[in-house]
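Dear colleagues,

For the upcoming journal club I promised to circulate an example of a predicted protein-ligand complex. I picked one with zinc ion because it came up in last month's discussion. The inputs are reproduced below in full, followed by the predicted structure.
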Amino acid sequence: MLTSGDAILQVAHENSFAVPAFNISDWNMCRGIVEISEEKNAPLLIAIHPDELSHTTDALMPAIRELAHRASVPVAIHFDHGATVDQMVWAVQSGFTSVMLDGSMLPFDENVALTKAAVDIAHAVGLSVEGELGTIGKTDAEAEDGAAEIIYTVPEDAVRFIELTGVDSLAIAIGTSHGIYPSWMKPELKLDLLKEIKAAVNIPLVLHGGSNNPDSEIGEAATLGVNKINISSDIKVAYHTKMREVMADASLREPNTIQPPAIEAMKVEAAHKIDLFGAAGKASLF
Ligand SMILES: [Zn+2]
């Protein structure tokens, strides 16, 4: 069923697991992600970044909402990395049930002001807002934005930020980056910092750039207070790697022949994340 982001994250927060937010950029990815969440009986956030929405167009939103309505598990449709008040209004009008305002690259006071404006708009229509404090990295040209260097979230700042803005969940920087890490770079999460932040703020926490990190660290983060983990690169790599393999056969033409194996490969990767985050079976908590 179509659900608000807040309703899903509160259950994850109370039960110490993380809900995957899978970024989708086309209808097939969207269908596959809903299917695997149903097979795993796991709650789901379908995440769509403004760049992805400009590709799918917002005309696809009614179909995504219908798909969520028909799903046997709770599904929220999340606007990922909104950057302006105008985009917040657009997201609300388009039918998202959860929004993010990312002011993390701004000075603290400007981030507070912009996030507070987003909260005022979203709360007025009963939607929750994810803010971001600290900046995560960016590892490759195709990745979403990030800083050249990670600025770790300071627990006291997080407390102040939540008080001043009224955000419902907070994305934090504890060592991840958007994209796929180059071979020389070994990501390492500061799990002690995560524990400190969680103890100080007591709201759902969010990890961006969850792709391509060691499973053990991500799994532990999900038990220590991270309640939403964004996965974009890993499922897209699985989807398109399989598609390239299938398309090596130049005689194939029909999307219905080419795309299903790619969807299946993406579902295998997504299932692994759902298990890793402790989200499998958790739809029964709703
Ligand atoms: Zn992100």
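Two points we might discuss: Residues 174 and 278 are 20 Å apart (CA to CA). The two ends are 10 Å apart (CA to CA).

See you all on Thursday,
B. R.
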